[in-house]
Amino acid sequence: MPRRQSAKTRRTVVIVCSVLCTGLVLMVIGFQGHVTGTEFAPSHFQSRDFSFYEIPGLQLQISPITRTGTTAGVATSIRLSGLIQTPKGPPTQWHVVSLSRGMTGTTPDDAHLLTEQLEMLHDGTSFWKTWNTDHPQHAAVLWPMVQRLAQRELYVLIPELLLIARSSAENDTPQTLRKKIDQTLIREYRSLIADMRQSDRPDLADAFDQELRADYPDLPRAEPTVIQREESTKQESATDNSVK
Fold it and tell me: Spans of biased composition, class Polar residues (predicted)?
């Protein structure tokens, strides 16, 4: 009889421990294994939220991904107005806007630089939706350029283009806006190419150069911006050597 009670007690202890351990694991996964985020598709100017569960630390997904569309009204209007080129079918390229794991907080990614602007309000209404309505010809210049940069994941260049558009629409013609944007992109591309070469990343520098040549095939090979950067680098190097 005592042996039966002892065996029964052990089974009870094992069951209780198993239940407690399972509950603890589920609690940890529930708090620390919940992954949420937002994605953006530059081809369609669409956004969506996603969420799933993973094993914390291992980042091993253990549940299906749930997705919900969250496209801002201004992004929809840009697409429906024909201001960007939208391919047939659903988007195939999605870029992470932000990501949150457990209770670590939300980490923004590069695409956030565009989606944040699209959500900008002025007097309680969408700033860019109003701007597009007030300046349709300028909008036809701006948004294709923005889409092209987004598809190349060059979101870091987009805020300056939007700033140029905001500041020049009232006084400049669409042609002048296009010229200002072109000058800015050429300068920024040249800067990126120079930075990549100085960082010993020739493949990336060549990729940027190919994109620049595709956009501006008549652009001269020797640009003042590059020459100035190279001369500045040489002077800094010479100064450092003389100090040593």
Answer: 235-244
Task: Tell me which residue of 24, 23, 71, 22 sits closest to 44, measured CA to CA.
Answer: 71
User: Nearest CA to 71 among 52, 89, 97?
Assistant: 97
**What's phi and psi for 211, nearest 5 deg?**
-65, -40
Phi-psi region of 99 (alpha: psi -120 to 50; beta: other; left: phi over 0): beta
Residue 172, number of CB atoms within 10 A of its CB: 16
Half-sphere exposure of 65 (CA within 13 A, CB side): 12
CB 33 within 8 A of CB 53: yes
Query: 85-109: per-residue pLDDT in tens?
Result: 999 999 999 999 999 988 788 899 9
| Radius of gyration of the CA atoms of the chain, in A | 27
User: Rounded to an integer, what distance in angstroms lies between the CA atom of residue 224 and that of residue 160?
Assistant: 21
Let me know: does 177 contact 141? Beta carbons within 8 Å: yes
* DSSP H/E element including 189: helix 174-198
> Quick check: 97 and 108 in contact, CB under 8 A?
yes
Give the per-residue pLDDT at 10.
Answer: 65
Check if the beta carbon of residue 26 is closer than 8 Å to that of residue 37: no
Q: Strand 60-61 to strand 125-126: parallel, antiparallel, or no bridges (unpaired)?
A: unpaired
152-182, pLDDT tens digit by residue? 999 999 999 999 999 987 789 999 999 999 9
